[in-house]
Write a structure and sequence with these properties.
Blueprint (H helix, E strand, L loop, with lengths): L11 H4 L12 H20 L6 H13 L2 E2 H8 L3 H13 L3 E6 L2 E9 L1 H22 L4 H15 L1
Antiparallel strand pairs: 1-3, 2-3
Helix pairs in contact: 2-6, 3-5, 3-6, 4-5
Length: 157
């Protein structure tokens, strides 16, 4: 039935008008996506000093935690396609944060590893993101913080 209150708005301006004014009208999904969007924007701002995007930061984090690895292993850690991993590593390599080198166990394969600068930047990003998370979640009570972690882990798994 067209025009019914349960139908999505057909007017593009109405669809993009923002959150409802009555908090009771907000769905769980809408609230979740609003928080996720806020976190994404905050994360991008946090990463600006290093000229890396969140995908670059995730890859650099994996490499600084686990050390040199093949692109296929990095793709598995990041849960992205190998082609996308190549693009991420290319971006990090252009910035001097990672380097490719032959795999001593298999001359046909290539390893990617953080450079000294990549290790330094990775540590700085971890520190900045930790401070960012504290600002974002710091107003939660310890009980709410623990409950949110429990809920998010349940949804993730």
């Amino acid at each position: 039935m067209t025009g019914a209150t349960s139908d999505p708005p057909t007017d593009p301006a109405a669809r993009c008008a923002g959150p409802p004014t009555d908090p009771a009208e907000e769905s769980l999904a809408e609230l979740f996506w609003a928080v996720a969007r806020r976190l994404r924007h905050q994360s991008r701002r946090t990463l600006e000093p290093w000229d890396v995007n969140p995908g670059h930061a995730r890859a650099l984090s994996v490499l600084t935690r686990h050390g040199a690895m093949r692109l296929s292993a990095l793709a598995e850690h990041l849960h992205i396609a190998p082609r996308s991993t190549t693009e991420v590593v290319d971006g990090l390599e252009e910035r001097g944060l990672v380097a490719r080198r032959p795999d001593p166990a298999d001359r046909r394969a290539t390893l990617v590893a953080p450079t000294d600068e990549g290790t330094r930047v990775g540590a700085a990003i971890r520190t900045a993101r930790s401070a960012e998370a504290e600002r974002f979640f710091g107003h939660l009570s310890p009980t709410d913080h623990a409950e949110l972690i429990r809920i998010l882990r349940t949804l993730r798994d």
